[in-house]
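Student: Send me a single protein entry containing the residue sequence and its fold in token form, directly below this note:

Tutor:
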Amino acid sequence: MDRTSLTYKRVTWLRFTIGMAVFLPLLAFLLALRFGLIRNYEVTSSSMAPTLQVGDRVFMDRESANKLARRDVIVLANPKATGELLTKRVIGLPGDTIEVRHGYLYVDGQEQIEMYISPENRRIDTPDRTVALDKDHLFVLGDNRNSSYDSLEFGPAPLSSVRGKLTWIYWPPSRVGGVR
């Protein structure tokens, strides 16, 4: 009679900890994708260049739509066209006063220095204007200021139109990283 003996490899505390450190965040991420808390999108317009390029694939966090800050990059429903989604940067929050004077952007009287915009797009080609935001509206602009359909065209965007905040570029590999 042949006896086969089984040997068990003991799992050390360190090996278990490392396994859980990899497995649990991955599980949380997959569940968030499955239940729609995180969504993925492909960029189809150059209105956010150079921050986002046509063809970039990005993750959007739906939960962070309630915690927006100035300079966040968001996805919102187009206020003038049903079913169309736009990707823009939050410039003005509820209660802010936005001004365009001599081609430069001011928020509450402070000129905005935006390092994420290419030098040729720092000057806005639009007539001077002032917009005071209501408590339930945002002012959004594309980073490619003079080739973007944004609040300069359609006015302040309702907070209710925000779908989420873009957090991470995951494709192409050369551009992987956080959305800034």
User: Anything to note?
Assistant: The first helix runs from residue 13 to 34. The two ends are 69 Å apart (CA to CA). Residues 37-178 form a domain with the Umud Fragment, subunit A fold (CATH 2.10.109.10). DSSP finds two helices and twelve strands in the chain.
